[in-house]
Amino acid sequence: MNSNLTIKDIHNKLVQKEISCVDLVKYYLKRIKDYNKKLNVFLAVCEEDALRQAKEIDEKISKGKNIGILEGIVFSVKDTIMTKGLKTTAGSEMLFNFIPCFDATSVKKLRNAGAILIGKTNCDSFGHGSSGENSDYGSTKNPWNTSCVPGGSSSGAAVSVAMDMASFALGEDTGGSIRCPASFCGVNGLKVSYGRVSRYGVIAYASSFDTVGPMAKHIDDLAIILSIISGKDEKDATTVFEKVPDYEKEILGSIKSKKIGIPKEYFSSALDSKVKEILDNAIKKFIELGCKIEKINLPYTEYAVPAYYILTSSETSSNLSRLDGLRYGLSVKSETLQEKYQNSRAKGFNTETKRRIAMGTYSLSAGYYDAYYKKAQKVRTLIKEDFKKAFKKVDYILTPTMPFPAFKIGKKLKDPLSMYLSDIFTVPFSLAGIPSISIPGGFANKMPVGIQLSAPYLKENEILKLAYCFEKATNFHKYRPKI
Amino acid sequence: MSKHELEPVIGLEVHIELKTKSKLFCSCEVCFEKRKPNTNICPICFGMVGTLPVMNRKAFNFALITALSIGCEIPKRCKWDRKSYFYPDLPKGYQISQFDEPLSRNGYIEILSNNKFKGIRINRLHLEEDAGKLIHNKKLNLTMVDLNRAGIPLIEIVTEPDISNPEEAKLLLKDLRRTVRYLNVADADMEKGEMRCDASVSLRPKGEKKLYPRTEIKNLNSFRAVEKALFFEIEKQKKYWKKNGPPSQESTVLWDENTGETLYMRDKESGGDYRYFPEPDLPEIELEEKFIEEMRSLIPEMPIEKIKKYHKLGIADKDIFIIVEDVKLAQFFDKCLEFSKKDRIKTLTNLFSTELMYYLKKKRLDEIHLTPEDIILLVNAIEDRNITKIMAKSLLKKSIENNKDIKKLLKQAKTEKNEFDAEYIVQKIISENPKPAEDYKSGKEMAINVILGKIIQETKGKIDAKDILEIIKKNL
User: Fold this and answer.
1) Is residue A331 among the annotated active site residues?
2) What does the longest C-alpha to C-alpha distance in chain A come to?
3) How far away is chain A from the Cα of B328, in angstroms, using its nearest Cα?
4) Is B283–A365 a contact, with Cβ atoms under 8 angstroms apart?
5) Any residues with CB less than 8 A from the CB of B235 and at least 6 apart, and which?
6) What's the mean pLDDT in B264-280?
7) B46 touches chain A (CB under 8 A)
């Protein structure tokens, strides 16, 4: 099978009976079997359920019944997103035995649309990481160079798409967790506007940042998936009522004369020269496509990383307090209640998670709250204002996704600060809650490099339109890693 | 050692569970009946990862109307906060509560104490979720967690330290209970834990305005406990002051119902840092003035207004509290007042609080087939001297116990009274005065006037002499 098929291609093949759904599922299962050992992508695979579902769809097709666009399409789900009856660990030992009793709303919507869940993908525990190395089940490997990190935290999700172990993946992005691995692995990854897709059933990292989004090889795939998973969810009070656009139709629009802003703050010395070159080429391409380029300022960019880490650590310290060893998850037998709390949490959480819980607890403590949490909230407001002002002048913002291509496994593990700083280009959009996408922009030393496009709040349709035009004019998305 | 007399300064923090259909942030039923532990829970109130709270609007409105009824100011905007601490009855490791932007502030409650009205300022009223319960099994040396209660909407009401004695504290609590019952937002049964109270108390030399470090008393599960614990703590503090002067730091104590003593728990500094921060899972709540006014218009006449009304009518405090305790009874009484003549209100209230209340302790008002009109008929019958009070009592008994029409009973009683009364008095006087009776029987006709005189004296001239003479003759 050609690994560059779009969802629509596969759908047509199913409808025209060129391929059976069972064979399709078997193809992905084989890919998983062949490469999972080496790349450590999947933490759980649901072979039986997937095959049974495929059989049902084949029967439906053989009876001449119509099938929906996602029926029989195979997808993977990041392990921080809950799947009913299928082990969900969030990449943490704390939840080593946790089997959810319900599906996340996004998963439920995909299942209802007939998509077939094939398994759960590896990630930094609770989303705490930008490299994939913080998974308690071992780091996922970058398929372009297995000695490199795949990026995180949705590392398995990105690799499952890059390696065609699934047709698309559901990831989760808090400060870059979809866009970073998308950039490092050469796939598309969309971070949606906060509130566009339900967070119900997502094991929370930082509640006011977390977003569920799709990862795929093609922009029109993203449009199809986004149409399904978006919308108001009565179980998530932070989802918005705004009507979900017809993304499939919207991406076909023109980008002629659209203005793309290039923020000068994103071109510091931290930026790898090869990545800069890729970005310059992308700018040229957009000019060719009829867009206008404008230099803009986002003056509060330099405060984004510290503000982001204070706020997300604060929220995660609170969100993870329910994992106390008393009701579910890892529990260490102890003499006293205090010891039970301490022993269970000491064993269940890894160093990075503990670091963030400690930072967050500190930031929220009496006497420090104003200096840290509150100040960071003010920065967040200023950054939002930055973007609001910028979008008065331009339609889109173009930046690199990551300052560099994928780095060697272990390189930044002992230096958390430089790891945090690698999020410098992704976290501002997360602080602002606005949509942004990482799409394949080129290669540096044979490693993929993503470029990041963003648009105003809830303008996913605009982002996808711009990305779709770029995709049609380039070939970067067609390259597949060879192992 | 203080030369001055010491006076107590008391403030209360009251929690009341609201009786909405479902819990505050999930669709689990709100159930106050005893249920098997952990059978009324769902992933949300169980604190499962991946779950999110969604606010129950009804619970918010219940809290809002309560706040309005005690004169609180309602800001246009309020928000939710997380209050963090680890405890087995708190499944998420934090309680969703309201910290610096509560739904209401600056209220005012009036109590009637010793025939005087006194205002007590309310600092705030906010909404939060209740925690679960711990069940200690001493036999098995086990502590178990029951989360059925977790997530039930709870209002917290904090008073200013305006309370001067334990009696006032109890009156304030009763006032609050009546308020939520009148609004039909809660039953607030303290024995069932639907209303809970922590009391803070300190002393100061009379006349001073300054507040000294206070003691917070926890585990007060009845009105009596509140009163007793405060009395105990005040005496304890008085002794401490006499020996050492004012205490240097705040402390928390636990009331032990069995020993009748308060036990030291901790000083305030080690009480923990709750790390409050805005709840990111719930949007802020914006309220329109129009909506607030709509809610305000739904408030019925509150118990304090009724109390004031009855007080003005000269009804005794004791009777006022009996009547006002039950909203239906108070409404019934209000109807009676409406129908009653002004100068007969005393008879009405007497009948109400002494006679009718006796039955209302055994039966609900709606099980007694009496109307306010019936009560007025009785009152008027007493006032018009058609029946005596003793008869009114037996009439009520007959009517309530045998479900008999009060009008028919009254008609019967009226004629009975005339015969019974006259006959009784005549016989009584004759037996008390055997001499004139014998004289009359032996032919001295004038002797009957002695008996008649005695009867007129006895009945204060309210009996017709001609009629009586006939009866006397009959009886001699």
Assistant:
1) no
2) 70
3) 39
4) no
5) none
6) 81
7) yes
Is the minimum CB–CB distance between B281 and chain A shorter than 8 Å? Answer: yes
Do the beta carbons of residue A151 and residue A184 sit within 8 Å? yes
In the block, tokens 């496009």 appear at A453
Q: Quick one: pLDDT band at residue B441, thresholds 50, 70, 90?
A: confident
pTM comes to: 0.90
Q: How far is A80 from chain B (nearest CA, A)?
A: 9
Taking CB atoms and an 8 Å limit, are B49 and A204 in contact across chains? yes
Please confirm, yes or no, whether A78 is among the known catalytic residues: yes
Question: Using an 8 Å Cβ cutoff, are A474 and A156 in contact?
Answer: no
Q: What is the value of ipTM here, to two decimals?
A: 0.96
3-state helix, strand, coil in chain B (%, to 5): 45, 20, 35
Of A100, A238, A361, the CB nearest to B281: A238
**Which DSSP string do the residues of B153-201 spell out, in sequence order?**
EEEEEEE-S-B-SHHHHHHHHHHHHHHHHHHTS----TTTTSEEEEEEE
Q: Whole-angstrom Cα distance, residue A191 to residue A467?
A: 13
Task: Name, in order, each residue with C-beta under 8 angstroms of B156's C-beta and a sequence gap of 6 or more.
Answer: B13, B14, B15, B97, B124, B125, B126, B127, B128
| CB contact (8 A) between residue A321 and residue B94 | yes
* Contact partners, residue A379, CB within 8 Å, separation at least 6: A300, A303, A304, A306, A307, A431
Q: Residue A343 corresponds to which amino acid?
A: N
Residue of A nearest to B280 (CA): A208
Are B49 and A365 a contacting pair at CB < 8 A?
no
Distance CA A221, CA A7 (A): 6
Instruction: Return d(Cα B385, Cα B455) in angstroms, integer.
Output: 18
CA distance A452 to A396: 10
